[in-house]
Design brief:
The protein is an all-alpha fold and 397 residues long. The protein has helices spanning 9-14, 29-33, 45-53, 56-61, 64-67, 73-77, 84-99, 104-110, 112-132, 147-150, 153-183, 192-197, 199-208, 218-241, 267-292, 303-327, 331-355, 357-396. The radius of gyration is 24 Å and the shape is globular. It starts with 8 loop residues before the first helix and ends with a helix.
């Protein structure tokens, strides 16, 4: 592994929010109290040392930032106030920018004005598009609001699918870069059957983030899981069920727009109610925590943390208002709020999914999965060597 030193690394990391890593004198308290640290991957102490020594190459290929969930125990126990947990968070931002081949993630994380401008531009384009491209006014129902008569569902679906294709391409290409950095020269040496055999680990960690549950502050895990599962539930319903898998049984129905009169216990309603509660509770808890700085994890919030939570909560609140506007037959209100809803939701998808917070949900389980793959491959390689050694010893006797 390369030991090349980058003397400008700490200065570069300060743009991503690094503050106190220089205070660390490597007492090891942080690693000792971390419930997720192991002899094979001791963090955050070793990683803080990489930062201090400018070991950019080691940082790029190391899995430790994605093994940390930032419960805050390490920062709370640090006698020097070096904030090792925050350093690990900074490294996740930094690595996200290195995985991103477009360079957009770096701009997003290092310039608050760029972040705000990017969101404003995308929101303005969405709003302008909805105001320009709609059905003729004569065909709009101003008594009983029907979104599909104003913006035909087929056109919205095409736009959704086009956006999904672009976002998938950007995210998957960045995920592939993460894969290559973590696996290194083993990336294409490991047999496909080993990758396949360990896939269950990827699925488990995507769905449950169960390692987070091992942290001392389990409430952080619950809040994180609520936000993730709540948003994922809505996203999957919109992407999958929009075209009728498996609930599209009513002509002209589209999940995210004109709801039919389903009974209260219908699966789609239950998913919607859960997602609404999960997102509102999770984002409210996190926003209040950041305002009060009630935990180490909330003391040094980055602008992207705030923006992510605000956009997600606004998306949910405007979605609720659209729903009530339809129920109360407030046509103008419903149409106006729907435009605002889309102006909030689309920038969050376009910017957060491939380049920021939501990308972490892809990188973290991927890295944990790849470590399992490496371990399985290493064990497989060790067995033949041990067998040859045993045969040689027997022959020598």
């Amino acid at each position: 592994m390369s030991n090349k030193v980058d003397p400008g690394l700490i200065k570069d990391l300060k743009e991503f929010g690094l503050k106190d890593a220089g205070k660390c004198f490597h007492c090891g308290n942080c690693t000792a109290v971390c419930p997720l640290s192991t002899p094979e991957n001791p963090f955050p102490r070793r990683f803080v040392r990489y930062v201090q020594l400018g070991q950019k190459d080691k940082i790029l290929t190391a899995p430790e930032p994605w093994l940390c969930y930032y419960c805050g125990d390490c920062s709370a126990k640090c006698p020097r106030g070096a904030e090792p947990g925050e350093t690990m968070m900074v490294m996740r931002r930094y690595l996200t920018s290195l995985y991103d081949w477009t360079g957009f993630a770096r701009k997003f994380y290092t310039s608050e004005s760029f972040e705000i401008m990017a969101i404003a531009v995308v929101a303005a384009l969405v709003g302008l598009g909805l105001l320009i491209f709609h059905a003729p006014s004569a065909g709009i129902d101003w008594v009983h609001p029907k979104l599909n008569t104003v913006w035909p569902s087929e056109d919205i679906e095409l736009a959704d699918l086009g956006m999904a294709a672009i976002l998938s391409f950007l995210l998957l290409t960045n995920v592939f870069r993460c894969f290559k950095f973590i696996m290194g020269e083993l990336a294409f040496k490991v047999p496909v059957r080993i990758y396949a055999a360990q896939l269950k680990e990827l699925i488990i960690h995507v769905l449950t983030q169960k390692r987070f549950g091992q942290c001392t502050d389990r409430m952080q895990w619950i809040v994180h899981l609520l936000i993730m599962t709540g948003y994922a539930s809505v996203f999957l319903c919109v992407v999958l069920f929009i075209n009728g898998i498996p609930f599209h049984t009513i002509e002209g129905f589209r999940f995210q727009r004109d709801w039919p009169e389903f009974p209260f216990w219908h699966p789609l309603r239950l998913v919607g109610y859960y997602a609404t509660f999960a997102i509102l509770y999770g984002t409210t808890y996190a926003l209040i925590g950041r305002l009060k700085k009630s935990k180490p994890v909330y003391k040094s919030s980055h602008p992207t943390d705030w923006m992510f939570l605000i956009l997600l909560q606004l998306t949910t609140l405007t979605g609720i208002l659209v729903h009530f506007g339809r129920l109360l037959d407030l046509a103008l209100f419903t149409y106006a709020i729907y435009v605002i809803h889309m102006m909030v939701a689309v920038p969050m998808l376009v910017l957060e999914v491939p380049f920021a917070k939501w990308a972490h949900l892809a990188y973290r389980p991927l890295v944990i999965y790849l470590l399992k793959v490496k371990d399985a491959y290493s064990q497989e390689q060790t067995v033949p060597v041990a067998a040859v050694a045993a045969e040689s010893a027997a022959a020598a006797k």
